[in-house]
Design goal:
The complex is a heterotrimer of chains A (403), B (637) and C (161). Chain A is α+β, with helices and mostly antiparallel strands and 403 residues long. Chain A has ten helices and 17 strands. With 637 residues, chain B is an alpha/beta fold. Classes of the chains: A alpha+beta (403), B alpha/beta (637), C alpha+beta (161). At the B-C interface, α2, β11, β15, α18 and α25 of B face α3, α5, α6 and α7 of C.
Chain lengths: 403, 637, 161
Amino acid sequence: MPIHLTINDKAITVPEGATILEAAGANGIHIPTLCHHPDLTNVGACRMCVVSVERARGVQTACTTPATEGMVVNTMSPAVVETRKFVLEMLLTDHPNDCMTCEVNGDCELQDLVYDYGVKWPEHNGRRHQYEIDPDPNPFIFIDRNKCILCGRCIRTCDEIQNRSIWSFANRGFESKLVAGADQLMLDAGCESCGQCVAYCPVGALFDKMSLGKGRANQAEKVRTTCGYCGVGCNFDLNVRDGEIVRVTSAHDAPVNGMALCVKGRYGYDYVNHPDRLTRPMVRVKWLDAEKVAERVESGQWTLFSEAEQRRASLSYRRTSGDGKSVAPNPQSQISADTFVKTDWDTALNVVAHKFTQVKKELGGEAFALFASAKCTNEENFIFNKFTRQMLATHSIDHCARL
Amino acid sequence: MQTTLAKDLAERQALAHSLWQDKIQADVYITIGMGTCGIAAGAGDTVVAIQRELDARGLKVAISQVGCVGMCSYEPMMEIQARGRERINYGNAMAKYVKEIFRHYFDEGELRKAVIVGRAIPTISESHGHQLHSLSFVGPEDGQYIPFQSKQLRIVLSNCGLIDPESIEDYLAVDGYSALQRALCEMTPEEVIAEVLDSGLRGRGGGGFPAGLKWRFARQTPSWPKYVICNADEGDPGAFMDRSVLEGDPHSVIEGMIIAGYAIGAEYGYIYARAEYPLAIHRLNIAIAQARELGLLGENILGSGFNFELQIKEGAGAFVCGEETALMNSIMGERGQPWPRPPYPAVAGVWGQPSNVNNVKSYAYTPRILRMGADWFKSLGTEGSSGTAVFALTGQVERTGLIEVPMGITLREIIFDVGGGIGDNKHFKAVQTGGPLGGCLPRTYLDTPVDFDSLRAAGAVMGSGGMIVADETTCMVEFSKYFMQFVVDESCGKCPPCRIGSTRMLEILERITEGESTLADLDEIKRLARGMQQGSLCALGQLAPSPVLSVLRHFEDEFIAHIEDKECPACVCKALITYRVIPDNCTGCMVCARNCASDAISGEKLQVHEIDPSLCIRCGLCYTVCNFDAIEIISPR
Amino acid sequence: MTQDNHNEIDLSLMDEIFTQYRHQAGALIPVLQKAQETYGYLPPDVLQLIARQLKIPLSKVYGVATFYAQFYLERRGRHILRLCDGTACHVKGTPILLTSLEDHFHLQPGETSEDNELTVEIVYCLGSCALAPVAVFDGKVMGRMKQNVLLNTIKKKTDIN
């Protein structure tokens, strides 16, 4: 049964079960919030969304109070505005005054509300928390507890959306503190670094570590794209500044994933501008016509995969391989049969086609096994299937999504 | 476990009654108060001494261990009655004085250390064919009520000190569980609710919400299962009413809860008890086991088809868990943080199901109301607040203790008639009710009647029953700082107004007690108070400014003395006082100098000593140890 | 906590507790209470074990354990002094008792002496207000406490200097 109520003298009808906040929002009436997020359960902690309800004692939190028949709500009564100002002022008394250097300057829910409500910076000699900034070596997630307003959005995100429950509040009262696990480092507490908590943080307490100092929200252009890592097809915004991706932010209106992203989608973008990235097909010298190689390299159409490039690649391999053993850089400065040549697509594909034909002729289709990628679209995978079974004549095809 | 039918219960009651008669009319009947306070004062040793004395005299009688009669300042307390003789209550009955007490009672010996508190007289009031047993105390000579008792009316405390709380037989003997029988066998749940509603019983946890109304809401919620919860998380510092009821009369709480369960349609109950009350929990466990044994808990109670089970949940040290939603979170194993209402517990409480939360005393009143009738209860107390009020009267008052008085009695009657006023030739300054969320009232408010509405109008609250009396040695500014410190320690931290506001308020109060404040801070206190009252999520934050505001309202001059004159009129605030030797009184005994931890006191033996203010850390040890009143405290410095 | 203490913990003592509470809803707090009864405090390994056995995230176990005043995450002193600072005790002199403890033993409420000899704690009301101010030394309730009596008791009963 629909519910009829009045908000700020406007008659409103909402479905049963809607909160005052939802009723207002659906009718273009803005009620400020901090601890509320539409994706998360409501806890009524931050007291920003308070409204006056006729015949109710005190103020009510709009995010937790259901709209009831005949309810008369005022979202801007003097008591409500006074309460919001008080809450903001109290939060500021235990918050660093460093918007100038803060990563989320201009993209901060607290800052916006403080501005909207004209709250001045409260000078006082009382206690302010002095937590160590970024004490956690997690490579992706930056934490500054001094900026934390204890809204608990990160906790609920990790709990309700990610089902990891890494975050919690420890202690109580003024000593309340956001902790991972039993006050451990994030990774020790089982954090998978999905960064979901960062996405839901309304202030600069949790931030993407890779993006520190790279550009604030208003300095970067947002480009909506689809994640290339798997077939789920998550959408997100690349934050691009001067042609470089400085951050990935999830978007609430992304059709498939909403705000959710995994560690790869959110933080695995550094390959884009990485010097090791392959931008041209490479073929070993032994599969190419030696004369053609000499001629094309001479003319600059093809280039040799240089020793320096190879060394860098092997260095980065050594860094990431983790076994302590390094791959020795190729000591040979001359061209060997195994040296890679950066060619063009036609040449490279011709080599592949030629080899396929040759193998099929000599050994038959059963010699092939193919592995499809979730990074491809359905259509691409369909073609891949046809190619495998009809062209190569084998049933040995599998897909990475089965791993 | 067998099903006890209503007629079986009547038989058990009759049997219990005759056993009870045998017991109190034995050759010698001895009781000893075994509440936490009695035990702390040495009652455990007293029991051993009594047994030794009985053995020496060749008397073979059982010692009845009863709850607390409330006269804490006389603890430990024991009663002796030989058949056909008066029943005398002795105070200060330490083990070493037991012999003396026996000699006094039996051999007309002299009392030296122990005292006669009064002659105990069992009293029975009747209504609707039911009886309420209690105990009253009169002076042995004049036969008049002793002063501590004169204004009291014991209903919810009626069994405390009368029966052995670890014996269900004793409880049955004084008509126990007959209210349950009446409810289950003769009344519909709606009739039970109507009766409680008619009685005008208001919740005794402090809020004063009509209990019957709460029950009706819980009954009306069409969801199952439902839960009955007893809030025994008595966290107010200086309050121990619920503890005494649980320790002295646990069955009445259990009976009340079963009745409430029947009324709202709940088959499961929780008692959320403060972990600092191990004895209360112990006795509740015994009582629950006894009730289960007798079929008063379990399935098909008294053949009515109604089932009810009860479980104790121990708190873990959080004042905020006295707030009902925080309490339910704690029952569910969560951090004890409140949630905003709605949803109200009657709609969605523990485990998301309809729940009814009431205070210990509210449940303990229930069986008495059902037995004696709503009209009887309503006839006691005032129009808006029926029945009685229980207070833990403590602080700087001559007779501290637990008292039960009819609603409407004045503060003056409680403090001066029942409590005997202020001792040591000192003067009354303030009375604080309602604990950290209550308020302080000055002398001019002593004639305020004690009931929910009058106290609220005066700027204090009924609270759950703590009443602390302060004399002129209490600094009201420091007193309010104490309460704010309590709130800072106990704030759950969920909402900013309470979490941060209380800290800011405490900082100001600290500045004032340190003499580093300006008058503008008083306005700031009021502003912070308003923000906390308006913005906080739960009653803890909303009411936390009450003590400070009431002090500001009634004792503003003390604030101003601290701020303007850097003076602490009560000579309490360390930063504003200095210690000085009174030369005329000093005998040069050197005790102070020997005790001084910071070597601030100098002087030769038999010479007048001197305190060096630059070394003195104002710990007050010299003041405590001086036997000649030769140290004085001065403010301003 | 030192590594030595760490090794002393016998986690099998928890088995019985889990058997008793595993199927009870809202078992976390009683299990923490029983664990503390067993070990005297809540060592990290015990918190981990409780989280695993009750299938509750460790963060939540930690959040609950640090919310309630009753729980201790660190080993406490050999002797424990609890001073009541309930209102009645407060107006009857607990603050001055605290001052002298600080002066003589440099211990503030909640602290344990460096030699692990004494822990001083504050409790808000033990419900024995008529005996105010009340101190509880190693479980023994002592009423109407005075500074010199308190200091002497500590000096006599402990090896603290």
